[in-house]
């Protein structure tokens, strides 16, 4: 068989988990195959290879994508997050920890995609995005309660052949609750900082304006 013409190949640079990788790819190569076969990032799993099971889910610019349907050349210039980039060194992400604590996996094959999808779900919900089961979809209604029904609908693109769905829903709910608590504590801290500075300045007898100067 004659080799493919060189015009079907390009050297691309992918930004994956904060690092840049330059590699030659056939224009028909999917992001999934580039990750697994060329970059040895095998945490992203190949399941159906048709966009139906969610095992290959990654984040593109923070949004969920099934990498088996995403061309590698089309991902150039975008921030790609795979399961290898979720943890902070040896410290697990709260979503990973919740899956571990609540047995949100059995064989583990679908787990990387489930976790990446859960990260997207939590961000989408925090941004107020409705789902197919959201009763009030008006923008002014804000984010709906993240009930088990909401989680099941939002995670429905990720299949688990072991049937660990009950624990997966519980893990997503716990991680989402922890994210909300962390966000509220961060907001309270941001509000408290100017007040603390003003109090310290007043105690020093220089006034807030003097302290700011």
From TrEMBL:
Segments for region (Disordered): 184-213
Protein name: (2Fe-2S)-binding protein
Domain called 2Fe-2S ferredoxin-type: residue spans: 10-86
The organism's place on the tree of life at top rank: Bacteria
Lineage: Bacteria, Bacillati, Actinomycetota, Actinomycetes, Kitasatosporales
Comp. bias regions, Low complexity: 197-213
Keyword Signal: no
Alphabetic keyword roster: Iron, Metal-binding, Oxidoreductase
Keyword Chloroplast: no
